[in-house]
Amino acid sequence: MARTKKTVVYQGRAGAVDCILDWPADTPRGWALVLHPHSEQGGTRDNKVVTTIARACVQAGLAALRPNMRGVGESAGTFDHGKGETQDMLEIIPQFLADYPQLSNGKWLLGGFSFGSAVAAHVYTALAADNQTVPDGVVLAGPAVQRFDFQEISLPNHTLLIHGEDDDVVPLAETMTYARDAELPVVVIPGAGHFFHGKLLLLKDLVEQRLKTM
Fold this sequence. Notes:
The structure is a single chain. The chain has about 210 residues and is α/β, with parallel strands linked by helices. The protein has a single domain (about 5-210), classed as 3-Layer(aba) Sandwich (Rossmann fold), CATH 3.40.50. Helices cover about 30% and strands about 25% of the residues. The protein has helices at about 50-60, 85-100, 115-130, 170-180, 200-210; strands at about 5-10, 15-25, 30-35, 60-65, 105-115, 135-140, 160-165, 185-190. An 8-stranded mixed sheet has the order 1-2-4-3-5-6-7-8, sandwiched between helices. α1 runs parallel beside α5 (about 200-210). The two termini are about 20 Å apart.
């Protein structure tokens, strides 16, 4: 499926949030917000796991918004351990929907990889606590939710956690402990490391399967 890509800039608490918007060839049935790994460790919106999740979304008919978070690329601010990044994402969501009001009533997927999974989890929690519209699906890859816990996290039972068996950044045991406490299932990809090298097609398939249920 062909798609178009363009740069869009929104305003977060720290200033500009520079984003890429991937748009499906046909009229989108909704949208996705996909968040990247640790900003101080080379994480950007162009990370392969992030673009793989976004590609699955676009092929499923969703417009995919990929922001560079604080201090990355042309985005303003400095790394804030998830707190400021969460505030920024909460700021840009209504701005994006004001630009694309046709997506407001469509399906919405919230996705994140590694550090981005923690920000996504905080975004979902804040929206739910404020009785705002929450995403129809949550996909967290290589989840590091428990490492950036400035507030108590509450995720829906339909959350998809995807973890690599051989992850040496966020050990599988760490995610299993979190998932056990949160009562969430985990899909483990055998032989996969943190960045899912050689396993991105399988990761994409898992995201596509989740999207079919939305």
